[in-house]
Design goal:
It is a single chain. With 383 residues, this protein is α+β, with helices and mostly antiparallel strands. The chain has 2 domains: 133 residues, no CATH class; 224 residues, Cathepsin B, Chain A, CATH 3.90.70. Helices cover 19% and strands 39% of the residues. The strands form 6 sheets. Strands 10, 13, 16, 19, 20, 21 and 22 form a 7-stranded antiparallel sheet that branches. Strands 1-2-3-4-5 form a 5-stranded mixed sheet, covered by helices on one side. Helix 4 packs across helix 5. The radius of gyration is 25 Å and the shape is globular.
């Protein structure tokens, strides 16, 4: 959001809004009256005046739509002290002032359906075709597909819960069980994909020298390989991947993740290909097991996040859940299957992927393939 210079006159409690659309018949999902209030509060806060009897701002407002042409929010085209400005407020479940400036009027200048893609990216839809508001050129199918992709950004707003599982018998089987995995975390808002990429590259750097230039990702202690803790080199790698993937505070799409990490690997003199671990929208768990047993690592793209740590006790397990509704990317390295038999002779089998979570209090944990909403899963093949 741009910072505004304070005006020398005033803004207004009694702001006059002239709507070119009938917003009284608005979609109930978008809270237009609350958006109006937030617009007024925003200008009051910026210009530093309150309780003014007469409005010094005149404004027009029009509805905004997302790229699925669902109602999204409002663009305000306003004039204050002979200066033109505009503000964009959306309601995607949370009311947000995404842009406000007094450096010129609204970027939407025609009567077509106004589409808000992201900050600085303004389209309109005319006759079923998307156009760029600045150039009036049609938007390519590739560009539409790119912005339509799900973004994965992680979150620092995590919640916690736990489950106690009492059993009479328990057994487990591990596949590519590792005592140590890379456990690097967030360096940027929205940066879970670069962090997952950092954990994956550090894992492969053990096998492919100088994948991280002039760096040893770990060392062998008493016959066991242990990965280094986070350090300046891994943080710099995460920063590089943030740039290579084109990540922003809004996150990273699957295609951005693939192109960015491939760009990095190619720059180090290696080739990278991807193997899908999905079929008909579901993860192929048996293929995942076979993949990790070959020593390959995977990237999991999650719709919402629910990481699990397992604490084993005599006669019961405690499962601690760390979760958020935000989409997230994690790096996976192994599989675990836990079989329970209960007092009533019923049974339960939990199938997990051992992951570096990249955030939270429990970065070393598991994703339950039976309950997780896995949007995509990719094995990385480096040669």
């Amino acid at each position: 959001m741009k910072n505004l210079h304070k005006g020398t006159i005033i803004v207004l409690a009694g702001l006059l809004l002239v709507s070119s659309l009938n917003l009284t018949k608005a979609n109930a999902a978008v809270r237009y009256e609350e958006i109006d209030v937030l617009f007024q509060e925003t200008l009051n806060g910026i210009l530093g005046y309150e309780n003014v009897e007469e409005a010094a701002v005149s404004a027009q407002k029009e509805r905004l739509y997302d790229i699925e042409l669902n109602e999204l929010g409002v663009v305000y085209d306003f004039t204050y002290d002979e200066q033109e400005g505009f503000a964009i407020i959306i309601d995607d479940g949370t009311l947000k002032v995404t842009e406000v400036t007094m450096d010129g009027g609204s970027p939407y200048s025609n009567e077509a359906m106004k589409v808000y893609v992201s900050e600085g990216l303004y389209w309109y839809n005319d006759g079923g075709v998307f156009y760029d508001c600045v150039s009036d050129l049609p938007i390519s199918d590739e560009a539409i597909e790119t912005v339509s992709e799900t973004a994965y950004l992680g979150s620092t707003d995590l919640q916690y819960d736990s489950e106690r599982i009492e059993y009479v018998y328990r057994s487990e089987t591990s596949y590519n069980a590792l005592l140590s995995i890379p456990l690097y975390g967030f360096t940027h808002e929205g940066g879970c994909a670069p962090v997952a990429g950092t954990n994956l590259i550090a894992y492969y750097d053990k096998t492919y020298p100088n994948l991280i230039p002039n760096y040893e990702p770990g060392r062998t202690i008493f016959g066991r390989y242990m990965f280094n803790v986070e350090n300046e080199t891994t943080m710099a790698l995460s920063e590089t991947l943030y740039q290579d993937m084109g990540t922003s505070s809004k996150g990273t799409s699957v295609s951005q993740f693939k192109s960015g990490i491939k760009k990095y690997v190619n720059r180090q003199g290696y080739s990278l290909s991807f193997q899908s671990l999905m079929s008909w929208g579901k993860i192929k768990y048996d293929t995942v097991k076979a993949t990790v047993q070959q020593g390959k690592a995977i990237a999991l793209f999650l719709l919402g996040y629910r990481g699990i740590t397992i604490t084993q006790n005599e006669g019961y397990d405690i499962l601690t859940y760390e979760y958020t509704t935000a989409n997230h990317v994690v790096a996976g390295f192994g599989c675990l299957e836990v079989n329970y038999t209960f007092a009533d002779n019923s049974t339960r089998t939990d199938r997990y992927i051992h992951c570096s979570m990249g955030m939270g209090l429990y970065p070393n944990g598991y994703i339950n393939v039976g309950s997780a909403k896995i949007d995509d899963a990719l094995a990385l093949n480096i040669t």
